[in-house]
Amino acid sequence: MKVAVFGAGYVGLVQAVGLAKLGHEVVVIEINPDRLKELDSGRVPFFEEGLQEALQEMILSKNIKFVERFEGEVNSFEMAFICVQTPSDEHGGCDVSAIEAVFDNLIELSFKNFVVIKSTVPPGALDDYEEKGDFELIANPEFLRQGRALRDFFQPERIVIGLKSEQAEVKMRELYKGIDAEILVMSVKSAQLAKYAANTMLASRLSIINEIAGIADVVGADILDIVQVVGSDSRIGGKFLRPSNIGFGGSCFPKDVLALNKLGEMCGYKSTLIKPMIDLNSRRPEMFIEKLKFLIDDLENKKVAIWGLSFNANTDDLRESPALKVLEILVDMGVQVSAYDPCIGIDRLGYLADRVNFCRNKEETLPADFLLVLTEWEEFDLETWDKVVDKIRMKLVFDAKNFLDRARIERGGLEYCGIGICKMDALDPGRSRLD
Ligand code: UDX
Q1: 338 backbone dihedrals φ, ψ, rounded to 5°
Q2: pLDDT of residue 430
């Protein structure tokens, strides 16, 4: 099938390369000339596992092409996918202006086939365009996790399609024929709301487990045991329950949860649960610093090593990264920080670049008084800590994402500090601190 994909960001490029690998003829429309040039020469302008290799393979097989403008025989394309950004607007709602620009372009060109919205948009927000144009709208929300997006494309939990006509269903089933997953067909609005619902459910799971881990910290219980108990209840399930001392991040959860709240408000439903969840999550980096201040005397004058800055492992995305927020707060406090991330260069640090000792590998961040591991990159979970123990003066490793092997750290002669598994005597005022 011949398909056009608007937008070569994290979502669009994965969709385009995925469809090309399924054997479709894909043309990607990317308006940023620098990005376009890079893509044309087979370079992915961001890091996403396996994407670079897959892109080069598809360029060689001529299944994918990049252009600046959609023009010419546009109706030879059976589908146009919209994968452009939908950031938060200043009121916490969803800014759909980039999508509107694509629709205007399609209307101007008298595009007559299917327009598939992949971007996350509030149900009903773009319905007018169907009346203005001569095409049928389909909603096909993405559920890709950055860092494993290509795998998620080929092995999705499900494919969700919102549509109106039988013809649209036939086309979409044909498009995804090579993928072995259940296809859930529903109305456009339901598909669009389902995307917000999935992200809000996931974000609420993390919010609750983070709260419980905080309580485990102060009562001296172990969150790993608690997760095992809670997760073994088949009604709850054990996935996506790893607590984080600095909260969750990324370009989707905070933005989508706020947009859902705003959507409810605009339609006359006032949710009391959803927004506080995001407000609390955005305060978590500060709360983590408060915890550090409590545990470590004279924090301002310490030298701190940070491993990990991206919001998640296996991505170079810094959007809504709680790790970056922690770095910012420490630097603003005047703390001396050495930082490293496997995928992020100093050019990405903006105003922080001159104020941080930015390192090319994790070893270079040491010696330091203590170590903060803020992103769950596999390379940070050392096989043995013997080689670094002497370079961490206070013998303290903070695992903000509870993913490191605690036993190995302790065997290496270091003290492990996660969330909900810290030596919590330390949080009880009146007892000794860690320093
Ligand atoms: C999310 C959704 O998972 C995806 O379906 C949607 O399309 C886009 O938003 P993404 O934000 O890319 O994907 O990554 P995800 O792996 O979901 O992680 C989001 C955040 O939650 C990260 O900060 C991660 O560290 C955190 N997280 C995840 C936890 O703190 N604990 C967990 O158990 C899992």
Answers
A1: -110, 130
A2: 43
